[in-house]
Specification:
Elements lengths: L2 E7 H22 L7 H4 L2 E4 L17 E4 L1 E5 L3 H8 L11 E3 L8 H11 L1 H13 L4 E9 L3 H17 L4 E8 L9 H15 L2 E6 H16 L28 H14 L1 H4 L8 H8 L9 E5 L14 H8 L16 E10 L3 H11 L13 E6 L8 E9 L3 H16 L4 H5 L7 H24 L6 H7 L1
Parallel strand pairs: 1-4, 1-6, 4-5, 6-7, 7-8, 10-11
Antiparallel strand pairs: 2-3, 9-12, 10-12
């Protein structure tokens, strides 16, 4: 069995990461009734025997002693990490996994990337190495961060570069939370553009998630709770949507949004954690979905959405679930993939679903989904037999699709508005090691990425229907 390490950077990264660990523990507790440390648990948790002087790990097959998350937590202000350490998950992490400062990055990519990145480089590498040494077969690093703030965007992408330097053979999957257009951080377009260049250069896969999409989904779920139909009400005190699981105190506005991203991670890692008739290796995501190294932005969509809010509604029919995964309402960025071009697509299904169900639905949906001419069969599928807690099945779709382009164009426009006026630029240029050319290089990198998507979109008009070949086959 392989293992993965989760690296959470910044306030957003740590809150989402904390939610993931909480939900993962619940899921394993639901499946693992005997209290045995099995291979499923070993993929993301160590079993530590505190009676041993060195706190050594126990072998698979023994009793569960103390579970420790395979994680590294980094934040340049202490608030969120301290909250985690005072909450129900405090036993899951120990001090060797944590790295904090007190002053924060001031919403400045340069401070996070240059100042803290240089000051804490050795400590970060040491903690990553220690986490890696506890793995028998390290397969993947999951990095969780936001793009708008200083620590998440700046230090987060510095950590990504260190992962490539120190562990070049290990897959790097990054979950990046993109800010809203009306973000309260005025410099978020600078931070996002500077971070984008690093993501394009150093990640194997990026799962972009937009705050605005999360807000829309949460509002939709709230509407469901106000419909008033019996059996269609959100359990508002539910631990699945509340922050009670991971963080102490009352539920915060972002808890439901963080929960959606945590469920994305829960689904993408399900094949690594549980058995299934068609298991998908995490390395296979990049291998099968990324035909061009720079175009590694995979649009996630989750269905059914009510699993994210513990809504008591009748189970969606299986075929409807597949249709939902390709509708714009279920995408975690504001995009409609059906009207753009697919390079490849992965379907990760959980629950009692047969391979024949998968094939039937792919054949049913294929005519309405435009794929590039040279990869018409560009589907990757995974079946995990363990469904999410309380539900019969769920589906995560990852689409390498040109519909991500408008998000990048909008980001560039917001950057240009600020940069044209040189607004707030001095805050960045005062940081040691930061040069103005970093901005022009970053926006140039994004422009060339957009142009690559443009060139692919241009081929869509030339896609020829396959009627003659089908005619001969008859």
């Amino acid at each position: 069995m392989t293992q993965s390490v989760v690296v959470q950077v910044g306030q957003c990264g740590n809150q989402v990461g904390c939610r993931f660990w909480d939900l993962a523990l619940r899921e394993h507790a639901h499946v693992n009734k005997k209290g045995v440390y099995d291979e499923a648990l070993s993929s993301f948790f160590r079993n530590v025997d505190s009676r041993k002087r060195d706190g050594g790990s126990c072998c698979v097959g023994g009793r569960i002693q103390h579970l420790k998350a395979r994680a590294v937590l980094v934040d340049m202000e202490e608030g969120v990490v301290n909250e985690i350490l005072q909450g129900p998950l405090r036993e899951v992490f120990d001090s060797t996994q944590l790295l904090t400062d007190v002053s924060g990055s001031g919403n400045n990519w340069a401070v996070g990337h240059m100042t803290y990145g240089s000051a804490y480089r050795e400590q970060i590498v040491e903690k990553l190495r220690k986490a890696a040494e506890h793995c028998d077969c390290l397969q993947c690093f999951f990095l969780i961060h936001s793009m708008g703030g200083g620590t998440g965007s700046g230090l987060g992408t510095r950590v990504l570069g260190l992962l490539e330097e120190e562990f070049p053979e290990v897959c790097r999957i990054v979950t990046s939370i993109y800010p809203c257009a009306e973000d309260d951080v005025i410099t978020s377009p600078y931070n996002s553009i500077l971070a984008m260049r690093e993501l394009t250069e150093h990640a194997d896969c990026v799962l972009p998630v937009e705050n605005q999409s999360l807000v829309d989904i949460v509002n939709k779920i709230k509407q469901m709770s106000h419909v008033g139909k019996p059996g269609s009400v959100i359990k508002t005190d539910s631990t699945v949507i509340s922050g009670q699981g991971g963080l102490s105190g009352a539920e915060k506005p972002f808890d439901a949004m963080n929960n959606i991203v945590a469920n994305l991670l829960l689904n993408i890692t399900s094949s690594a954690r549980f058995e299934g008739s068609l298991n998908m290796d995490l390395n296979e995501i990049a291998m099968n979905l990324v035909p061009f190294p720079r175009l590694h932005y995979l649009i996630p969509s989750l269905t059914p959405l009510y699993t994210l809010a513990d809504v008591s509604v009748p189970t969606r029919r299986l075929d409807q679930m597949f249709s939902d995964a390709f509708s714009k309402d279920h995408q975690l960025i504001r995009a409609d993939p059906k009207h753009s071009l697919y390079l490849a697509c992965a379907l990760m299904v959980r629950g009692n679903v047969q391979v024949s169900d998968l094939r039937r639905n792919i054949e049913r949906l294929k005519p309405s989904l435009p794929f590039v001419s040279w990869n018409q069969e560009g589907w990757k599928t995974g079946l995990c037999s363990v469904p999410p807690v309380g539900h019969s099945h769920s589906l995560l779709a990852l689409a390498n699709n040109t519909c991500v382009k408008p998000t990048f164009i909008e980001l560039r426009e917001r950057f240009t508005k600020l940069y044209r006026k040189k607004a707030h630029l001095h805050h960045y240029l005062h940081v040691d090691g930061m040069e103005q050319e970093f901005f022009s290089e970053a926006v140039s990198s994004l422009s060339s990425l957009i142009e690559e998507y443009n060139q692919l979109d241009a081929t869509k008009a030339r896609l020829m229907p396959d009627a003659p070949r089908l005619g001969i086959a008859r």
